[in-house]
Write a structure and sequence with these properties.
One of its GO terms (biological process) is mismatch repair. The chain is an alpha/beta fold. The chain is built from eight helices and five strands; from the N terminus they run H-E-E-H-E-H-H-E-E-H-H-H-H.
């Protein structure tokens, strides 16, 4: 069972605890997407967990539960052109900042999955390694970010059907690499990532 580490913050009467997580650091194509989610003060939801541990159907179910119950949700993303320009780590942190800015409230506290705090964000914050397995609000953010990005990639699949983005979501599967070598990259590929660079050499 999830620890729900935000309980300690609730006990200090910190009400608006935002969990922040991202998805899409590893793919060869598409944006990196972050979500920031504040769930109701003191409330525990059954079924919310690290998005990677949930089936697609369960993720969709939990996504709708979160949308219906969250106090506030913000989503931020950074596209492949910016990723190539600034690198994936800086793009990920920027996506997180955008997610916070896109909320309709200012959180009292941030719980951020991983090890990097957000510079220039004047809100109390703490990082949590493997936070999507330890914090309910980070897990909720992981679900929102994953579902949102998957839907974006399914949309790109219509535009670029040869890469089968609806299935691989831009990750470097064998099928995706083979398509890269055959067709070359499209505009949403990350040209700074080695397999995409290699496909250019193959042309």
């Amino acid at each position: 069972m999830m620890e729900v580490i935000e309980r300690k913050l609730w006990e200090q009467n910190i009400r608006f605890v935002a969990g922040i997580d991202e998805v899409g650091r590893g793919p060869l194509a598409g944006p990196v997407v972050a979500a920031s989610v504040v769930l109701p003060y003191g409330k525990i939801f059954e079924g919310i967990d690290d998005s990677k541990k949930l089936s697609p159907d369960k993720r969709e179910e939990m996504f709708h539960l979160i949308i219906e119950n969250a106090v506030s949700i913000g989503i931020g993303y950074v596209d492949s052109m910016v990723i190539d320009k600034v690198n994936i780590l800086r793009a990920t942190l920027e996506a997180m900042k955008r997610a916070i800015c896109n909320m309709n409230i200012v959180p009292d506290y941030l719980l951020i999955d991983g090890t990097y705090k957000l510079d220039g964000v004047p809100i109390f914050q703490n990082t949590v390694v493997k936070g999507d397995s330890k914090s309910q609000c980070i897990a909720a953010a992981s679900i929102v970010a994953k579902v949102y990005r998957d839907r974006l990639m399914e949309g790109y699949d219509i535009e670029y059907p040869m890469y089968n983005f609806s299935k691989n979501k831009g990750y470097g599967t064998r099928e995706h690499i083979e398509a890269l070598m055959k067709y070359g990259p499209c505009k949403i590929h990350r040209f700074s990532f080695a397999p995409v660079k290699n496909s250019l050499c193959n042309e």
